[in-house]
Amino acid sequence: MTAVPLAVSTGPGFELRQPKGIAIVGGLLVAQLITLHSTPVMYLALDRLHVSFGSMFSSRNREVSRDPPVIAKCDGLSRAIR
Predict the structure, then answer these.
(1) Mean of pLDDT values over 7-17
(2) Number of CB atoms found within 10 A of residue 20's CB
(3) Distance CA 33, CA 22 (A)
(4) Would you say 47 and 61 are in contact if contact means Cβ atoms under 8 Å apart?
(5) Could you tell me which residues are beta bridge partners of residue 70?
(6) Are 67 and 74 in contact (CB under 8 A)?
(7) How far apart are CA 54 and CA 29, in angstroms?
(8) In b/e form, how buried is each residue of 49-66, taking b as 16+ CB within 10 angstroms?
(9) What is the distance between the alpha carbons of residues 80 and 51, in angstroms, rounded to a whole number?
């Protein structure tokens, strides 16, 4: 992070450079925390909505399986088995 020296420097003209460094470092930290928090939360929320409302939009009523498909290998070919 090359903006850290801008944020903590004390030299001639630091009054003009320090706010820019603080804004860069603070913005990067806040954006990273929000991204690391919001991505899993949104994924889980959309997955729950899909499970709840998925059967409403399908042509036939079927149970939504939360198990991953089993991969079978035969003669060098892979296929998913449910």
Answers:
(1) 85
(2) 12
(3) 16
(4) no
(5) 81
(6) no
(7) 37
(8) eeeeeeeeeeeeeeeeee
(9) 21
Q: What is the pLDDT of residues 38-70, one digit of tens each?
A: 888 888 988 888 888 776 665 555 555 666 666
Strands 70-74 and 77-81: antiparallel
Domain ranges of the chain: 1-59
Q: pLDDT at position 64, please?
A: 58
| 25 close to 3: Cβ distance less than 8 angstroms | yes
pTM for this predicted structure: 0.48
- Provide the CA 74 distance to its chain's centre, in angstroms: 35
Rounded Cα gap, residues 45 and 39, in angstroms:
10
Q: What is the pLDDT of residue 52?
A: 80
